[in-house]
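Design a sequence for this backbone.
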């Protein structure tokens, strides 16, 4: 049986690139997003790009954790779970959007945890879980209150899940700006401004994040790791 990988948030950006990397290696890949039509379309595109039939799409909404048991019922086994799904939130204390903050907090803390809870009995004992946090856990900015808080919360999830799921490995990757990601690719002034704050003066790419993610997912010695991938932040 081939390795089976679930990428929640795999319809675009880094999640999509990671799904493609696994498909090229011959893994069976399930990409999940909020909308089933978009997920199925992205899966068909990835099958064409990778010359496989190994990718399929499904609908998973992390912001509705009560729906996840049903959404994930079609997965009989899984060797790796990747949780990249998120909601962007620019939310200041002066102008606080409770609904937006609540959706992000539920999706990334309760949603991530519920996916793992739901699939725990179907997860290979030699498998691994990868959570996505971000640089904001250490470098807040105006409007990042909720983002900073939930990304810091991801480090807590790594600590507790690594113990509760052992021998399954649990790690997290925390990217900074990713210059060629869909969100930043069309905002080069912001990318260049960020470059000046990066010690290497090299803005990370999606490929950089995928390679770091694959290391955490596949290296048997990597467990309980929170890996910062940002080029060093001045």
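Sequence:
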């Amino acid at each position: 049986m081939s390795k089976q990988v679930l990428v929640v948030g795999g319809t675009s950006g880094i999640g999509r690139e990671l799904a493609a990397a696994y498909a090229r290696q011959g893994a069976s890949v399930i990409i999940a997003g909020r909308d089933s039509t978009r997920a199925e379309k992205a899966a068909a595109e990835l099958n064409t790009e990778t010359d496989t039939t190994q990718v399929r799409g499904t609908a998973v909404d992390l912001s509705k954790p009560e729906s996840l048991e049903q959404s994930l019922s079609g997965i009989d086994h899984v060797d790796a779970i990747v949780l990249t799904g998120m909601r962007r939130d620019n939310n200041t204390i002066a102008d606080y959007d409770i609904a937006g903050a609540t959706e992000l907090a539920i999706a990334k803390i309760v949603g991530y945890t519920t996916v793992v809870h739901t699939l725990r009995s179907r997860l290979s004992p030699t498998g691994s879980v990868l959570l996505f946090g971000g640089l904001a856990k250490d470098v807040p900015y105006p409007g990042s209150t909720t983002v900073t808080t939930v990304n810091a919360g991801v480090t807590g999830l790594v600590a507790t899940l690594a113990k509760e799921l052992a021998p399954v490995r649990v790690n997290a990757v925390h990217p900074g700006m990713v210059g060629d990601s869909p969100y930043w690719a069309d905002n080069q002034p912001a990318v260049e401004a960020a470059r000046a704050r990066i010690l290497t003066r090299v803005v990370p790419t999606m490929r950089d994040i995928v390679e770091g993610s694959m290391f955490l997912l596949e290296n048997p010695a990597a467990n309980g790791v929170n890996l910062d991938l940002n080029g060093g932040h001045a």
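Strands lie at 4-8, 28-33, 55-59, 78-83, 123-132, 169-175, 226-229.
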